[in-house]
Structures are given as structure tokens and as C-alpha cells.
Amino acid sequence: MPTTHQPWPVADFHCDVLCKMMLNSGLDFNHPELDVTRKRLEAGGVKLQTFAIYIPVEAGNPGMDHVARQIQIFQEKIAGPEGGLKTLLWREEAEQIAMSDHREIWGMLSLEGVDGLEGNPFYADLCFALGVRLIGLTWNFANWAADGVMERRNAALTNKGRELVQRCNELGMLLDVSHLSERGFWEVMEQSARPPVASHSNAAAIFPHPRNLNDEQIKALIIRNGRIGVTFVPMFLQEKGSPPMDRLLNHLEHICALGGAEHMMFGSDFDGIQEHVIGLEHPGCYPALTELLLKYYPEELVKRWLFGSAISYLQANLPKKQN
Fold it and tell me: Is 260 in contact with 301 (CB distance < 8 Å)?
């Protein structure tokens, strides 16, 4: 089993470690205050970790300097000599990761909310040049591009938001619909040239948190051949407290029932949560999740959810390297 042998490969589509490291410059990539560290990624068998760029309220008025600072932290402390991760940029590299048995670890940059782009859709070009490959237009509330899921008015995209989506289409930037208002979700589904992902969302039919996806949204992602990153956020699984790990199974089973067995992956949200699912406190716990899943699902499907689904999406949708 995975706890006694080499852990199975994992691709995790969301964590917030960059935000923590920006707010506390004294944190290195193996600091015990972090959920995600180099050692824990190794222990969990994580071959690909997506690192979100998120600007919290305590950082002040969001700007491109916050985005650039977190990219710098990634380059210096995570992808640099200290962390040793390789940076995923191109489709050819995703194919390399899929085929390789080597235990090297890759990182990919995402942007969680475009507040820091200061209302300029062409700052997406700068982000792309600096390595960002996935953009979510909002966090939970409204910004210059769209409404977040917590905005009561439930507006869709602004004119500048539509310009941004078009620019992402031209660049080859992937789009993330987690955190978007429902109307914004449907507009991105219509306007995106590539299948979007919900990097860290669960099923609202199982637990009705606003951040979870309803059945029509899940089915739309399935039809587009997008991906749904089942997440470990406790408040998306139950009203309060730390849920047991098996609380995830109902969400997996429900998405399977909607036809999404081939479209699920994981987006933990490590370092973005204060409480944790019991037994899933950091990436080193992925082998325990693997053991739980193997009690109920075939090995081939478990391997797909842990790694294959995410990497096949990137193989199909990341831009090709320009010669």
C-alpha cells in the first residue's frame, strides 16, 4: 500500500503558501508554520504543485507589485536552489512530467483573483511572461473584472473582464472558475477558448456552501472536458469543525454520478485554511488519502484522481513552447 511503499504521484492544483511567505518574509520553504514544504511534498509523492498568487486584505491596496513579489518568492525560495522545484510552463514539459518516473517536483503558478492587475487586461501578458499559467478572475467578492461568488447581485463579467478573458485566450492562459459568481461562471464557460477548471471546489448538492458547484456547473465542466479540483476546505464539507477524511467521499461519488469520474483531481487549499480535514493536514498525508480511496475505488481511477486527470488536462491545454 502507499504508506509502506513509494507514494503514488500526485498533482495538487491549489495552495496558498506564497501568500504566507509574502506576509512573513522570515519563512523559508521548509518552515514548520507552512502546510506545504519541500519535505512534505516529497513525503506525499507530489510531482506537481500549483502555487496560487493571492493578495489578502492585510497586504493593503492590491497592486501589480504584490503579484510580482509573490512571483519573486516562488522563483527565489521555491523554484530556486532553496526549494529546488522545476517550473511548469509549457505543454512539452507536462508531457515530460507525465512520462517521467523520476521523483523531481514541479511547480506551476496561478493567479487567484486579478485585483492586483490594476484594471489592466494587458498585465496578463506580464504575468504570462513571468510564468503564470492559470488565472481566476475573482476571489469571493467583486473586482474590476467580475463578481465573486459572495456578491449578492451575482453580476457577470465587466467589459474589462471580457477583454481579459480574450487576452487569456490569445496568450494560451488557462482560466479558473472557482470563486466566480454563477453568472460569471457561465460567461467564462462560454468565452474561454480552452476548457476551464474549478481548481478547488466541491459539490453543492452534498454540502450547500456558496463556493461549491451546483450540478449544472459540474456537468458543464464535464461537457467542456474541464477539471474539478475536489478540495480539503473544512467549511466546504461541513458547517464547522474539522471533518473526517471520509467526508470527501460523498463529493467524489456525487461527481462520479454526474459523469465526472474522468474529470476530477485535487486542489487541497493547503496554507489557505485555518482548520484541516482530520488526517489531511499537509501534502505528506496524501498516502493516507490514497489508502482510503483504494477501499472504495479501483486502482486505475484513484491514480487518475491523484495525478492523471490533472496532468492530462495540462498536456492537452497548456501552450506549446515557442521556438
Answer: no
Phi and psi at 163, nearest 5°, equal -60, -40
For the CA atoms of 215, 221, 222, 227, the dihedral, rounded to the nearest 10 degrees, stands at -110
Which helix (DSSP H) or strand (DSSP E) does residue 174 occupy?
A: strand 174-176
What is the amino acid identity at position 223? I
111 grid coordinates: 493567479
Q: What is the pTM of this model?
A: 0.97
Average pLDDT value for residue range 118-140: 97
Nearest to 82 by CA among 25, 30, 21, 19: 30
pLDDT of residue 5: 60
Q: Is 71 helix (H, G, I), strand (E, B) or coil?
A: helix
Q: Taking the CA atoms of the chain, what radius of gyration do you get in angstroms?
A: 18
DSSP-assigned letter for residue 125: H
Looking at the chain, list the stretches that DSSP marks H as alpha helix, in order from N- to C-terminal side.
17-23, 38-44, 64-73, 91-99, 123-129, 159-171, 182-191, 215-223, 247-257, 286-294, 299-303, 309-317
Q: What is the DSSP letter of 112?
A: E
Cell of 263: 474529470
- 285-289: average pLDDT: 98
- In whole angstroms, give the CA distance from residue 96 to residue 90: 10
- pLDDT tens digit string along 188-221? 999 999 999 999 999 999 999 999 999 999 999 9
Residues in CB range of 17: below 8 A, 6 or more apart: 29, 34, 35, 36, 51, 78, 270, 271
**CA–CA dist 143, 121 (Å, integer):** 13
CB 20 within 8 A of CB 55: no
Give yes or no for residue 19 having a pLDDT over 50. Answer: yes
Beta-carbon contacts of 124 under 8 Å, excluding residues fewer than 6 positions away, are: 114, 117, 135, 164, 167, 168, 171, 173
**Is 50 exceeded by the pLDDT of residue 1?**
no
